Amino acid sequence: MRLASRVRPSDIAIVALFIGTELGVLIDTPEGSRLALYLFPALWTLPLLFRRRWPIASSLVVIGALTLEGRIAYNGTESQWALFAILIAFFTLGRHVELSSGTVAWGLGVVLGGILLSSDTGGLSASSVAFLAIASVAPFAAGAALRVREEETLDAEQRAERLEAENEARADAAVAEERARIARELHDMIGHAITVITVQAGAARLQLDRDPSAARAPLIAIEETGQQTLDEMRRLIGVLRDMGEPGLAPQPGLGELERLAQGVRDSGLDVELRRNGQPSGPLPPDVDLAAYRIVQEALTNALKHGGDSAVVTVGYSLRSLRLEIESSGGRPPSSANGGRGLVGMRERVELCGGELEAAEQAGGGYAVRASLPLAGAP
């Protein structure tokens, strides 16, 4: 199997050329040394078997052997078999050698060919020069054309492989980015839900001993928050699993800001919503989602750190959407420069190409200000 895969039809043809030449010597019995008669055909045929590994050496050995045979042995170079060897030798120079080196070797072959023809004919004539030109130029040009074509094909295949690798890298990067986005979604959603549930559970616990009926409202708020969080988690997990219909619930946006504020109010933080201006059209989905999550995270931090009240201001303009969340009372976030919540807010703002400021206020409390550019703004 391995030997069969290495032997090519062209190699078999070369061996057949050698055998045919030797049989011609045996049948015609030309005059001359019998050793030379049988040795030289081997020298101008069998080296072609190594034309792929040593193309210049094998080709020049073939042409040189023919030339030497014509000079010192006999006129056996007039055999019709010799023409095939010459054509293969010049084709090999064009096919397996770079153009610069192949041209030099071709020139040497032409010189040897001229010596060969002058030995056979007693001198160079116009017809012999024309024959040499055709026998050397045509196969050399055909081999060079085939080599260039294969190089172009190989280059195209390599470009296609690089392009495929780049596409795979971009796809992997997109998957990683989507996973990071989902991680931010889960962090913001679960963090907000746990904060609300914790506050409401504490309120319910305090009411159980004093007024059990009053514990009903915090427990309902816990139930609603848990259900909303569960629905959103199912949607995000559906995206991760690629179940086919992951988007049964819409992404949250500023349209649900009142519901978010009411949930925070039920947890004990007084929230006031203010709107300056009106949007000129539907907000880009990424900006709408980022704005909602920023407000959610800021209110969650205010609730978590014992704030008394918060004011959420949403301002619209032709170029941007501005958010301002100011909380009073409580302590500022201890991880203002490195907390996961603020890091998530900064990442969202950066993805939208906006700016974020988060700092402790002079009179107490904490403020988050964000500016998100609107796509297509003049």
Question: How would you describe the overall organization of this protein?
Answer:
By secondary structure, this protein is an alpha+beta fold. Among the domains are: about 1-125, no CATH class; about 270-378, Histidine kinase-like ATPase, C-terminal domain (Heat Shock Protein 90, 2-Layer Sandwich), CATH 3.30.565. Helices cover about 65% and strands about 10% of the residues. The protein contains 11 helices and 5 strands; from the N terminus they run H-H-H-H-H-H-H-H-H-E-H-E-E-H-E-E. It has helices spanning about 1-5, 10-30, 35-45, 55-70, 80-95, 100-120, 125-210, 215-240, 255-265, 285-305, 340-350; strands at about 270-275, 310-315, 320-330, 355-360, 365-375. Strands 1-2-3-5-4 form a 5-stranded mixed beta sheet, covered by helices on one side. The longest helix has about 80 residues, at about 125-210. The chain starts with a helix and ends in a 5-residue tail after the last strand. Residues about 1-5 and about 240-250 have low confidence and may be disordered.
